Amino acid sequence: MTIQEQVLSFIHGPEPKRFDSLALDVFRFQYVSVPAYRRYCDGLGILPENLSSPDRIPLVSTVAFRYASLCAPDSAKLPGALTFLTSGTTRGRQRRGLHVVARPDLYRASALSHLRATMFPDGVRMRMLAIHPTADRMPESSLSTMITWCMAEFGQGAALCAADRSSLDAEAALAFLRRAAKDAAPVCILGTTAAYAAIFHQLTARGEAIALPPVSRMMDTGGPKGQTVPLGAGEVVELARDLLEIDPAYVINEYGMTELCSQLYDATEFNAPGEAGRQRVKLAPPWMRPLAIDPVTLRHLPDGTPGLLGFIDLANLNSVSAVLTEDFGVVHEGRVRILGRAGVGGSRGCALSVAQFESAARA
Amino acid sequence: MLTLPTANQIVQQARSLEAAIGDPIAPAQVAEVLATVLRRWRDREFAPRHATIVQIARHLGFSIPLLEESLDTLLAPFTRDALAELARRVTVRRELLGFVMAGNVVGAGLHEVVLGLLAGAGLLVKTASREPWFFEELANTLAHEDLRVGGRLQVFNWSRTRADLTGVLREVIDEVIPYGDDSTITAVGGGEVVGFGSRLSAALVTRGAARGGQAEEVARRLARDVTLFEQLGCLSPHQVFVESDSEGDAVGFAESLARAMGDLARRLPPPLHLELEDAAALRSVRETARWRAIAGEPVRTIEGPGLSWVVVFDRDADLGPAPGLRCVRVSAIPNLADLAARLASVRGKVEAFAVAGNGDNISKVGDLLAGLGVSYLAEPGAMQSPPLTWRHGGGWFLDRMTVGQ
After folding, report:
1. For residues B301 and B257, what is the distance between their CA atoms, to the nearest angstrom?
2. Residue B329 — φ and ψ, nearest 5°?
3. Whose CA is closest to A250, among A195, A174, A194, A190?
4. d(CA B349, CA B388)
């Protein structure tokens, strides 16, 4: 089997014991095929032939996607290849990152397999409402692509995309939801937390609640991005329950990023029985290993120790699988608790901080 | 032992300050007392100073040698003669001033505290939660030396989250003078307030000074300016601009600076432990530089072990803040006009510049930087020892408390 086939096979039928050896094979493949990654590894003095454990695979910071081409030469020109851009909104003026996905079949398999496990473990198909633009409206957004695949794979009956790249049509979204309630037809809503905030605001302003039928569900992502006064994760769950009558176990937050082809989802009583009443953590798929990384040494931290989150995502086969994010988190028994965004520094003295500077620059 | 004050205690202390300033003391006499106190504080063996440094080292994680040298440097200009000279210039002000200090930088705000005392004001100082020791101990020394002068300086500590206590402070004094970032100033001031907001500093190596033996000496001095106070003060340079027609001069200077940073890290060790947020910011700087270099941009990283220090040669960078903690950029400029363009995005936020070069160059640079709102120029190595007449924050406080020469 080619390495592509091996990874695809792993996604369709994970064998956890094979992860380490496959991760090393993937690293060897990427070292050879991605010139910028090879230069990085060479600079660190790490050669594939000297590695016996995935623990030492060099992690590439997400900032690298802003500057370097992290794919094989000419990947973007391959038939079917997709090129995604990061939103570039959370860190001010910095340029947008770019992730070329040369083999979208791996990305699709990864996205849909984990969606099936976490958002649709009951196998129910239903009406779909996107409150984020679909891929036809925003082709450079990896989230848009994922939502489009999700709607096609798990949808049944009516479907609506109520957003384009510049705005959300909250009226259309609410009309869709009212109709579903009237028809007693469950709905799956997909979008950013900011878009949900706008929907919740509309309902609250009108004193309206829509009683969606049981097993209706929602996926939100993006956290505070795009919100003036960000909704906390707990608030999203409460508002979904109070304004849409969605059972909290069916309110599932996604953690993903343009630089990764795999995503993590909240563990709830719905997709991970026994989770009720516990602090929410996120589930990675079996082909993705979450890591907490010490920013000083870049070594893996012990279970339960806060650090920068890193991932080895086998679905990133055609770019770089070992990715270091700018988010803090804790990894415990393979589950992840996100602690927040990093990268601008802690408390300063009287020196101008990077955070202040970026805030002023945005203003 | 630091204890959280009650609102009533703050009110009582304000009354006590009012009583103290009703008993005039000649500025020259205050200067004499301050000279004695600060001379003691310049002595590394002085027990209260030593205890203060040990506390700060323990709680902030900074090394004792770094703190000792930082404090030595800050205190160096507070000589008897300089204090006496300043005393001759102050305008007497019988008012109550409330200082809200920033954390992390030991002694930050000392210039204004001294100025206030010389002018006869009563000072209520709220120290930062992260560094509540320096002004507390200094006030104790002052009171021990002279009860009347010491009675004009009261020090408290509470968290910025205690808006109730900050509100009481605002009510009982004539003016609040906050230090720190914009959010602190807004939170403390409750609206209309002028303070010492966060600023950054930089350095310029003028044409010719980046070459030969002189360059090594300039680099050594600038490395010290960067390193002291762990680069967290408003006088800490974040970037060094090298004026030259040759990019090689700037690269060579970055290498010299890196050698000097490494030498200093051995003598003044960096923090043993970094907070996660700081470590992540420092990591981000390195990774960004590394990947920009891989992408072919004119960027190069020279770094010490772990996250101890880093010099990033970033040829075309505009002036911008680094995360501190010994993280400095070196950029190349072909001429001074280009320097002005590089400072545009931080106009009004630049506190000081160290300038290396000959007299003619420095004079031209002074005019240029003054036009950009930079009021303090220093020689490399002297940035962290501003004179008592330092026009901190543009000089508004100095102007208010003194008459011109």
Report:
1. 12
2. -100, 150
3. A190
4. 21
Q: Is residue A358 less than 8 Å (CB to CB) from chain B?
A: no
Q: Which residues of B touch A306 (CB under 8 A)?
A: 276
Every domain of chain A and the residues it spans: 3-102+287-341, 106-273
Q: What is the largest CA-CA distance in chain A?
A: 64
- Looking at CATH, the fold of the domain delimited by A106-273 is given as Rossmann fold (3.40.50)
Distance, in Å, from the CA atom of A188 to the CA atom of A249, rounded to the nearest integer, reads 13
Neighbours of B296 (CB within 10 A): 10
Q: What are A229-261's pLDDT values in tens digits?
A: 788 899 999 999 999 999 999 999 999 999 999
Tokens of B336: 């001074």
One-letter amino acid of B129 = S
- Chain A: residue whose CA lies nearest to B106: A349
Domain at B200-378: CATH architecture: 3-Layer(aba) Sandwich (3.40)
Query: Does the beta-carbon distance from A351 to B238 stay under 8 Å?
Result: yes
Chunked in runs of 10, what are the mean pLDDT values of chain B (405 residues)? 82 95 96 98 98 96 97 98 98 95 90 98 94 96 98 93 90 90 68 74 93 92 98 96 95 98 98 94 96 96 97 97 96 95 91 89 86 92 97 94 82
CATH code for the domain defined by A3-102+287-341: 3.40.50.12780
Q: Give the CATH number of domain B7-198; options: 3.40.605.10, 3.40.47.10, 3.80.10.10, 3.40.30.10.
A: 3.40.605.10
Domain ranges of chain B: 7-198, 200-378
Q: Identify which of B196, B236, B284 has the shortest CB distance to residue A343.
A: B284
**Residue B288 to residue A68, Cβ atoms within 8 A:** no
Write the DSSP string, B51-66: HHHHHHHHHH---HHH
**Interatomic CA distance for residues B195 and B109, integer angstroms:** 11
Q: Do A64 and B234 touch (CB under 8 A)?
A: no
Token duo for residue A98: 């770019």
Find how far residue B284's CA is from the centre of its chain.
25
CB neighbours of A27 closer than 8 A, spacing ≥ 6? Answer: A48, A51, A54, A57, A321, A322
Compute CA distances A83 → A185, A311, A321, B50, whole Å. Answer: 36, 21, 17, 59
Q: Check if B282 contacts A (Cβ < 8 Å).
A: yes
Distance separating alpha carbons of residues A292 and A279, to the nearest angstrom: 18
Q: What is the rounded average pLDDT for all residues in chain A?
A: 93
Extract the runs of DSSP E, i.e. beta strands, from chain A. Answer: 60-61, 82-85, 98-101, 126-130, 155-161, 187-192, 217-221, 251-255, 264-266, 282-283, 288-293, 307-313, 322-332, 335-341
CB-side neighbour CA atoms (13 Å) of A36? 23
Interface ipTM: 0.91
SS3 B10: helix
